[in-house]
């Protein structure tokens, strides 16, 4: 087997369960030395348990790999800095940051509490920003001191619902949409240091998804959406092979890898004079008729009935 991440040092946030655990194991299988970070809390972000990260680090070591566990909260600035510091102190550097930690607190908008909003935005958005900032500062200093690019990688995690929308998840959708946009700006900023920034929008049968199902999930659903289908894309993005790809979003479901095309100007109309609001109804109807239709949660535009 060709090991495409041999010798690289990777941090995986939320690496103790679900997708993060799968990414950590697959990165280690491809030769990476891994900091498995996980707060070890519940699906809603409450509680903590250091044994969750430790179990995956131990699984990697038992298979002959190198790993260390971190129970830090990555949405906390000091916690995020300490995770990056742990990689540098333990393995001598950092090459890859996988921002994967996440929680859910689904509510409809009218019933959403401030706490449900803030906690979800905090874990996803600050939990992406804070470790990315710590890693970016390390890579900037290293690039400046060596005068060479660092071949670094940030791989973030958005969600199909953050790109295409869904019912009852405005806190999560706003946070995940923010991560997709963060990718575009961070990719532009960090290119000069030799760092790429890409994002995956995964679908996988993990506790976050299974908890939303009222019935026992069908075995074929669990098999089709095993997190192991998503991790190969993360490993490739983490490897030196992906150096030319940055600012991209990949929708990964089962064995399908798709590139998500970003916001861009669609139908447009120009005129020299300012618009009269009363005249805009007809103009906007015409623009909407000409515009590409909005996809549903699958990411595809469904054929219109009739
Ligand atoms: N499962 C899916 O279909 C799906 C779809 C779209 C996006 N995602 C995203 O994928 C990521 C992984 O989710 P999962 O489905 O594997 O869920 P999961 O609950 O199995 O794993 C998430 C892990 O993140 C950890 N975590 C939460 N807050 C943390 C914090 N502040 N610091 C450190 N660790 C923290 C949790 O303890 C947990 O182990 C999340 O960002 C999620 O939003 C998942």
UniProtKB/TrEMBL annotation:
Keyword Electron transport listed: no
SMART domains per UniProt: PKS_KR (SM00822)
InterPro entries, per database record: KR_dom, NAD(P)-bd_dom_sf, Peroxisomal_Beta-Oxidation, SDR_fam
Entry keyword annotation includes Oxidoreductase: yes
Keywords annotated in UniProt: Oxidoreductase
Pfam families documented for this protein: adh_short
Limits of the Ketoreductase domain: 8-221
GO terms for MF: oxidoreductase activity
PANTHER family reported in the protein's UniProt record: DEHYDROGENASES, SHORT CHAIN (PTHR45024), SCP2 DOMAIN-CONTAINING PROTEIN (PTHR45024:SF2)
Protein family: Belongs to the short-chain dehydrogenases/reductases (SDR) family.
Protein's name according to its UniProt entry: NAD(P)-dependent dehydrogenase, short-chain alcohol dehydrogenase family
